[in-house]
Specification:
It is built from 11 helices and 8 strands. With about 325 residues, it is α+β, with helices and mostly antiparallel strands. The longest helix has 24 residues.
Length: about 325
């Protein structure tokens, strides 16, 4: 297989990875909403959260350029359970907790008012992206047998035991496990970004394909590290993903919560669609074993990512591997 890892790395850095300027912009948006929440709660004469915590692809450092305009920044707001109570001491319902944050963050500066959704408060921006602020409460209990226990609950349709920070910790641990290098967060992060870019490479795919979280879970489960050869690593990981789910069940298990999936209940077509596109890409990449010239190999990579970047930025000949 002709070594195209240099070209793939350049594509990742120039076409997939967010620039420091773009990341600074997202960070500024996140911080501005944190300030709004704090000031809004002061005006409402309500207690402050003890923690804000970034979640999702922003926290896992797997944001890609193609997501920027429709990107959702997940930033959790954490209270102690005893703080989420009314003036007479009645415990807040999940809806009351979300309405509290919605009222606090809405300082009148948004063209579209922040929205209370089922799992979060959503803040819309005219550029096309949005910020999601889920609300959590920290619960401390003391049991006769279990002793002291601390856990977190999400303000969803009901108070649901969950904490998205555990997903970030899980992914960080998986990345360290395969930490042969630390270039842009390591090989696992680079492969996750490339897979997300592939899933968004055709406009007609974007509404049908797997979510970033689904792709991340599949990538970790099927990851085939290959230090120094991201091209082989990506091909082998895609091949493993293509056989990772059975034809009769495309459910993807949640990596942290036991007995839960990150796919919708019933038949979720998004993983099926993504895996079919991956299988088609693997067929193209398998053909590289029969290619002997660099230009032809780069044309294959162009077809995989639906671009002309590889042939337009062809590099010097490399050795066969």
């Amino acid at each position: 297989m002709i070594d195209c890892s240099g070209e793939l790395c350049a594509y990742h850095n120039e076409q997939v990875l967010l620039s420091s300027k773009q990341l600074d912009k997202l960070r500024a948006v996140r911080n501005a909403n944190r300030r709004r929440v704090k000031e809004g709660l002061r005006q409402l004469e309500f207690r402050q959260p003890y923690l804000f915590s970034s979640q999702g692809s922003y926290a896992m450092q797997t944001v890609i350029w193609k997501e920027e305009r429709d990107f959702d920044i997940d930033d959790g707001v954490y209270f102690d359970k005893d703080c989420l109570v009314g003036p007479r001491g009645a415990e807040f319902t999940p809806l009351q907790a979300r309405e509290l944050i919605c009222n606090a963050v809405d300082d009148g500066s948004f063209s579209q008012r922040p929205e209370v959704r089922r799992h979060c408060v959503r803040i819309w921006y005219s550029e096309g992206y949005h910020v999601d602020m889920p609300v959590y409460r920290r619960v401390r209990t003391t049991g006769w047998w279990s002793g002291e226990e601390t856990y977190f609950e999400l303000a969803s349709s009901k108070w649901k035991r969950a904490d998205a920070r555990a997903v970030t910790e899980w992914f960080d641990a998986q990345s360290r496990r395969y930490g042969a290098d630390n270039l842009h967060g390591g090989q696992l992060r680079r492969i996750v970004r490339l897979l997300k870019d592939f899933a968004n490479s055709r406009p007609s795919w974007r509404e049908q394909t797997a979510t970033g979280f689904m792709i991340t879970a599949l990538a970790v489960k099927s990851f085939k590290p290959n230090p120094g050869r991201d091209d082989i690593c990506l091909r082998d990981t895609m091949a493993a993903i293509s056989y990772s789910l059975f034809w009769f069940s495309y459910s993807i298990l949640h990596p942290v919560l036991q007995n839960e999936t990150i796919t919708k209940t019933g038949q979720d077509g998004r993983p099926r669609f993504f895996i079919q596109q991956v299988r088609d890409a693997v067929k193209l990449l398998d053909g590289l074993s029969r290619v002997s010239d660099r230009q032809s190999a780069l044309k294959v990579w162009d077809r995989v990512f639906h671009t002309d970047y590889f042939t337009a930025n062809a590099r010097s000949e490399r050795t066969l591997a």
